[in-house]
Amino acid sequence: MCAHCNYQNLLEEAGVEPTANRLQVLAVIGGNDAPLTAAEVFSTIERSHPINRVTVYRILDLLVQNRVVERISSGGRAAHFGLAPNKYHAPHPHFCCSRCGAVICLNPDSLSVDADNLQKTFAGEVSRIEVLVEGICRNCLKQRSNH
Amino acid sequence: MCAHCNYQNLLEEAGVEPTANRLQVLAVIGGNDAPLTAAEVFSTIERSHPINRVTVYRILDLLVQNRVVERISSGGRAAHFGLAPNKYHAPHPHFCCSRCGAVICLNPDSLSVDADNLQKTFAGEVSRIEVLVEGICRNCLKQRSNH
DNA sequence: ATGATTATGCAATATAGTTGCATTAACAAT
DNA sequence: ATTGTTAATGCAACTATATTGCATAATCAT
User: Fold this and answer.
1) Is B117–A109 a contact, with Cβ atoms under 8 angstroms apart?
2) Which one is predicted more confidently, B75 or A58?
């Protein structure tokens, strides 16, 4: 759904063989405006094309490993997957509704994180900073005020 | 382990009946410098006092609900639990080692988050902002350089 | 004591993810 | 074309984590 993203190129640039299944997984994730769970990716693909659940998990791992896809820890149990930041997609925080479990991408500049001090006080190697905003989404707020 | 925290008071102020099990759970969490999984809390308590696994889950839910304890989404599968921010404990980011799974509390001012724009662009109700730093911890870095 | 409410225990179940091994596909070297 | 090699996928079984429903025990106000 993103005009800039050629999924075939994304995979090749990451050094990942662009098989049909991998392209499907990536297209489903890239075509969604909110990050999806593995189960959602699986059932979406399955509607049009037979694929195994385990294959989806393995492809997701592979794509996360190669930074094509980003694993987002939602408040709930299942991880969510979205396109990893790249030259067309700025890193951005995610919102998790603690009522309905929805995961939503927030505006990249709705929050700014200053990590300058981190290097000074922490001895590990940092690869990624994830910001998770928790609360009640608009829909759930509406429903709650209804009674 | 925290001189300021009286667990009994913490529970009472939160409106939670301070039963023996709840005090144990809270003491184990408060007495640890890094957030623990439910399984870790359970097995720690179990060593000195019989308790059911499910009870631990229920108490953790209750304490999270009442903001005595904070649920931290680590990179891995199991949630981690630490003391929720209160007047003696500033909110702080957490580090997750993607190699060994360790979860570590970072310095409260190692990262600063500016959420001013969030209200302007987001219609939900925000209750909490969680910052998760992912990477390789010091120990794993050492081990890796050993061969 | 009696009854109501809350907390805990126990067994069963659900959910998410992983593993081991078999099969198939892709492709290079004869 | 045939063979061998590697990579990708499928399938079944399994593991880890968390949740549920219902029974029992504890607590507390009458």
Assistant:
1) yes
2) A58
What SS3 string covers B106-146? CCCCCCEEECHHHHHHCCCEEEEEEEEEEEECHHHHHHHHC
Beta bridge partners of A41: none
A132–B136 CB contact, under 8 Å: no
Q: What is the pTM of this model?
A: 0.94
pLDDT at A138 over 80: yes
Read off the tokens for B141: 């870095």
In this model, does residue B33 exceed pLDDT 90? Answer: yes
Measured at the CA of B85, the angle between CA B79 and CA B86, to 5 degrees, comes to 145
Q: Nearest CA of chain B to the CA of A2: how many Å?
A: 22
Q: Answer whether residue B87 shows pLDDT above 80.
A: yes
User: Å from A50 to nearest chain B CA?
Assistant: 27
Helix (H, G, I), strand (E, B) or coil at B59: helix
Q: Which residue is nearest to nucleotide C19 (CA to C1')?
A: A54
Two tokens, residue B117? 């724009």
Identify the band that residue A4 occupies on the pLDDT scale cut at 50, 70 and 90. confident
To 10 degrees, what angle do helices B38-48 and B20-30 make? 120
